[in-house]
From TrEMBL:
Protein keywords: Coiled coil, Membrane, Monooxygenase, Oxidoreductase
Compartments (UniProt record): Membrane
SMART domains (alphabetical): DUF3585 (SM01203)
Name of the protein in question: MICA1 monooxygenase
Organism this protein belongs to: Helopsaltes ochotensis (Middendorff's grasshopper-warbler)
Amino acid sequence: YPTWKRTLARRARESQMKRFCRAQAIQRRLEEIEVTFRELEQQGIKLEKLLRDENESPADQQTQWTNQLLYLVQKKNNLMTEESDLMIAVQELKLEEKQCQLDEKLRSYMNKEDTLKTPEDEKAEQEILKQLVEVVNKRNVLIQLQEEKRLSEL
């Protein structure tokens, strides 16, 4: 088993573990965001009830409640933005995983001697190459989407 093949296999395992760890971190953060959403929703409901029911309370108290409600809305919007960023990251991870799998398959066909390849092998190699290009294009679209989003936020 040549050294370069072991190196490639080790690097593939390492990158797979990194993707797995990133996916777990994203999942944890999405769960945290969901819990925070629920908490913000409950706080917002309480503030809305206070604003509706307490018409005779001082104006400065109502202003304070309104400001708190606006702050909660702003926090919720920020969380929604973060959640959409994380969902894009999840899609990117999936595409990255698929790209690695296709790379591995393609490499196995390309390492085969041309004289030993059957027409089915050549057809499969072309199909894998086509799928690989599609995955790369999808990843490129996601990156462009993230860049446009970043620029619009500035």
